[in-house]
Amino acid sequence: MISAAVMRGIGTLTRTRAAFTAPLAVRCYSHAKVETDEEFDSRWVTYFSKPDLDTWELRKGMNTLIGYDLVPEPKILDSALRACRRLNDLASAIRILEAVKDKSGPHKEIYPYVIQELRPTLQELGISTPEELGIHKV
Amino acid sequence: QHTLEGNRDHTAVIHICLSIYLDRYFQTLYSSLTVVVLVHLSSDVDVIDCSVPQYNNRLDTPLPDVPFVRNLSSEQKKLKEKEKGSWTQLTKEEKLALYRLTHELSYAEMRQGSKEWMTVLGGVFIFLGFTGLLVWWQRVYVYGDVPHTLSQESVAQQTQRMIDMRVNPVHGFSNKWDYEKKQWK
């Protein structure tokens, strides 16, 4: 009796193992295409790279980007900083760096990495970091 | 056009949009003017015009809609001109000045808390203490005497009666009384 039940149990196990390999279309997920990280990054780099970007678009883009649940990649920030340069807006450039540091929250290693990656751009454009200006603390 | 008048104060200044009047009656002669004036009430408070974008300090909005300082002095205008050149030519103080022109508070200043909670907590305790004093006074001077059945003698009589009645004899009151030795267990 017991062995028969065990055999039945093993039989159902093997059957459900086959069911696990069924195609994902069985599940109730949306069929929308998920944007990859690279696509997201390149989309935003292109946004800020527009040569005639105006101040509103810079502000809108930056505020939207900060609204997302992520810290922007250095290449997106590089594009945004260059947009600030085109618009002659140093204050916004420094503000963007502050926002990145704030966005990383408890992950203290993100901001130094971003600054390290952006260092050539910062030197080329002459943007000081908030730490260099002393506004990183009260 | 908008007209705002002070309800009670005769010195209220009216917000006028001259362009509508002028265009209607003097079409070709005058250029349109718009005068924006702060409504001046007797309490000397500036009323913010909420129909135009305002500056705000928000952590989730790094670039506000308008810069903090709109009316630039001549040195500030010169600095803004210098900003159009290479930023490597700017000194640290100039960069800081440019930052402060556009932003009132830095992120660190936005994030800093205040010691207000100590004041609030202290105030709460003060008022609780004062209320305690009032309640104490009330207990002493307002409430009448407690019933006589709460006196020691009366309670002893009640207890004896409860033991005689065998109140809760299984697990409760009388269970704790030793009826042989006539004392508490």
UniProtKB/TrEMBL annotation, chain A:
Transmembrane segments: none annotated. SUPFAM superfamilies: Cytochrome c oxidase subunit E. It is a peripheral membrane protein. Keywords: Acetylation, Heme, Iron, Membrane, Metal-binding, Mitochondrion, Mitochondrion inner membrane, Phosphoprotein, Transit peptide, Ubl conjugation. It is found in: Mitochondrion inner membrane. Component of the cytochrome c oxidase (complex IV, CIV), a multisubunit enzyme composed of a catalytic core of 3 subunits and several supernumerary subunits. The complex exists as a monomer or a dimer and forms supercomplexes (SCs) in the inner mitochondrial membrane with ubiquinol-cytochrome c oxidoreductase (cytochrome b-c1 complex, complex III, CIII). PANTHER family: CYTOCHROME C OXIDASE POLYPEPTIDE (PTHR14200), CYTOCHROME C OXIDASE SUBUNIT 5A, MITOCHONDRIAL (PTHR14200:SF17). This is Cytochrome c oxidase subunit 5A, mitochondrial. It comes from Cyprinus carpio carpio.
Automatic annotation (TrEMBL), chain B:
The keyword Translocase does not apply. Pfam families: COX4. It is found in: Mitochondrion inner membrane. It is a single-pass membrane protein. Keywords: Membrane, Mitochondrion, Mitochondrion inner membrane, Transmembrane, Transmembrane helix. CDD domains: Cyt_c_Oxidase_IV. It comes from the Eukaryota. Signal peptide: none annotated. Pathway: Energy metabolism; oxidative phosphorylation. The keyword rRNA processing does not apply. One of its GO terms (biological process) is mitochondrial electron transport, cytochrome c to oxygen. PANTHER family: CYTOCHROME C OXIDASE SUBUNIT 4, CYTOCHROME C OXIDASE SUBUNIT IV. Component of the cytochrome c oxidase, the last enzyme in the mitochondrial electron transport chain which drives oxidative phosphorylation. This is Cytochrome c oxidase subunit 4.
